[in-house]
Design brief:
Low-confidence stretches: 6-22
Strand order of the largest sheet: 8-7-6-5-4-3-9
Mean pLDDT: 87
Largest sheet: 7 strands, antiparallel
Helix content: 55-70%
Strand content: 5-15%
Distance between the termini: 22 Å
Number of helices: 18
Length: 597
């Protein structure tokens, strides 16, 4: 998971008003850590519960095609990691962390509740050679079949390996074969409920911007400068993230399957409200922490809150622009591809592509040789960080769709889980392996064998590629139903979790240590911008694994399996090649880092 707080922040809060060591302790830490740990746990419960459902909600309830659904998912998660830049600044300058967290929690809870109002499931239809036909859905045991109604006759839709589509008569014979690209599937969906869904995603994105950066800031305020408990305190806090996600990725899908999508999103909203209540009704336990800075003049909280609400329709516009983006013209090249990006994509990539060389040029001009080399090492690692999270974040999009379509979800005997619940594997392995990895790094460090930061990044890239290769290997053992055993997917998440633990805990800390002091805040912004870009690109990569569907379901599982394995193989090859490249660059990068560990 990307949500990694850091003990090293560019702004040291003023904590001279309190001595945490004199207060009550919680496992050797300030007692307030327990409340902030629980607050973050419930907030992540809501977010990851919602995220587990989102892609399938888009493909099954709104019946969007894979390309539209994964693109929208990538755009949403990109904004989730971009808005904290603004929310953190506003908290630092005006609101204070505590008010920002409470306001963000309210907006996110409203967003989750808004997702509950999805209306009726979209009605699928097909267009064949310019003529529209109704599509009927019929359950067949645990699967569903799609039929075209043609002059009162029901013809089953079956995709063929060569891309053509056959319409089968009741006796199984082919009544009609439609040429490749001659069959188009879509659905009638209410513009009102699509608008409501996009507004909900906008509310969540804005609310997250106020919540995410500032709850970590409050944790940092519990410790005075030089307090060695700070790193372990943030490690405990990080466990709250994964415990919350672990619980929600099991429970929210259960409610969604049992009662409907609204119940899964409703449980996410309840988790968010609990998070809000823990801060709002703290009984004075958090007095003195996360308070607004002392400034002359009127309180600017109300204008900021109004501005946040005004930002919601702005984000809604970005979402609609993203959904209406036209694919690039074949043969137009890289320039044509950039021109075809949505406005959100242009803003993200434009800012990232300008900021990287711009900051390096500035560092070369104003810094000494040592500072420039450290900044150069930071920028190289930031670029490789984009690649890692782009591939790792397939979990919520292409891997969830793979779980739904080409995975036998039975764990033991007839006991099975749902496709969204497969995302819990990552949180489970993080909770289980984090202490083991911590002990491993400590033991290696004592012997002088702990890998350098570039080596850890390289191992992470090779690991994320190896996870996809492991799943592709499992596809070779797929049965006649073209489904892979769930333990192959669990193996991918195990390998990815180990890779995550090599890169995630050190990223933000590394940036603060390598950056020139005068621009450490800007560098933190570039770091979060890199993760935001990775989320957006993850949506684009998932689009390469898009499979043609009718009414939200694929019509040929063999084509589906081949498409996923082909995409995952390419992903694996790129990741592992870049990982090896980074290992080769590790020695000069370590030299440029001048002792930073």
């Amino acid at each position: 998971m990307v949500d990694t707080p850091t003990a090293d922040t560019p702004r040291e809060p003023d904590i001279t008003h309190v001595n945490p060591a004199t207060g009550a302790m919680w496992f050797g830490h300030p007692r307030q850590l327990a409340r902030l740990f629980t607050t973050e746990m419930w907030e992540r419960f809501g977010y990851y519960g919602m995220r587990a459902l989102l892609t399938l909600y888009l493909t099954k309830h709104f019946v969007f095609g894979d390309r539209a659904a994964t693109g929208l998912y990538g755009g949403f998660t990109a904004l989730v990691y971009l808005t904290p830049l603004v929310g953190g600044y506003l908290a630092d300058q005006y609101l204070g962390s505590k008010r920002s967290v409470k306001f963000g929690a309210i907006m996110m809870a409203v967003g989750y509740f808004t997702l509950c109002f999805g209306g009726q499931t979209a009605v699928p239809f097909a267009t064949i050679d310019g003529q529209r036909y109704d599509v009927q859905v019929e359950a067949k045991g645990s699967t569903e079949q799609r039929y075209i109604v043609d002059h009162g006759k029901r013809l089953q839709v079956k995709g063929n390996d060569d891309g053509t589509v056959s319409l089968l008569a009741p006796d199984g014979s082919s009544a009609r074969t439609i040429a490749k690209d001659g069959f188009k599937s879509d659905a009638e969906r209410s513009p009102l409920f699509v608008t409501i869904m996009l507004l909900a995603l906008s509310l969540i994105s804005v609310g997250n911007g106020f919540f995410k950066p500032n709850i970590s800031t409050m944790v940092g305020e519990l410790y005075p400068q030089g307090d060695r408990r700070r790193d372990s305190g943030f490690t405990i806090f990080y466990m709250g993230i994964n415990l919350g996600s672990l619980g929600s990725q099991i429970l929210c899908p259960i409610l969604a399957d049992t009662f409907g999508w609204w119940a899964g999103f409703g449980l996410a909203a309840v988790g968010m409200l609990i998070s809000y209540a823990l801060i709002q009704f703290d009984g004075g336990k958090l007095n003195g922490y996360g308070e607004a800075p002392v400034r002359s003049g009127p309180d600017r909280a109300l204008p900021i809150y109004i501005g946040a609400l005004v930002a919601v329709p702005v984000l809604y516009f970005l979402f609609t622009n993203l959904m209406n983006a036209v694919p690039p013209v074949p043969g137009s090249g890289f320039i044509g591809y950039l021109a075809s990006l949505s406005l959100m994509g242009k803003l993200l990539f434009g800012t990232f592509l300008i900021s990287i060389p711009g900051i390096l040029i500035w560092s070369f001009v104003v810094g000494d040789r040592r500072e420039f080399q450290m900044m150069l090492a930071a920028m190289v690692l930031i670029v490789f960080n984009v690649v890692f999270w782009t591939l790792f974040e397939q979990a919520g999009s292409s891997l969830t769709l793979f779980a739904d379509r080409n995975t036998d979800l039975r764990l033991f005997g007839d006991f099975a889980i749902s496709a969204p619940q497969t995302q819990f594997f990552n949180a489970f392995f993080i909770v289980t392996l984090a202490p083991v990895m911590s002990v491993l790094w400590t033991a290696l460090a004592k012997r002088g064998l702990e890998p350098s930061i570039p080596v850890k990044f390289g191992i992470a890239l090779i690991g994320v590629g190896a996870g996809f290769l492991f799943l592709v290997l499992g596809a070779g053992f797929a049965g006649p139903n073209f489904q892979v055993g769930i333990w192959w997917l669990a193996g991918l998440y195990l390998i990815h979790s180990v890779a995550e633990l090599c890169i995630s805990p050190v990223g933000l800390s590394m940036i603060t240590k390598l950056s020139i002091a005068r621009i450490v805040g800007l560098m933190m912004g570039v770091w979060f911008l890199s993760i935001s870009c990775a989320q957006y690109v993850a949506g684009i990569v998932a689009q390469f694994a898009s499979v043609d569907t009718v009414g939200g379901e694929v019509t040929n599982l063999k084509v589906s399996l081949d498409t996923y394995t082909g995409t995952f193989t390419t992903i694996a090859e790129v990741a592992m090649a870049l990982g090896v490249l980074l290992l080769l660059l590790a020695w000069p990068l370590k030299k440029w880092m001048h002792g930073v560990k």
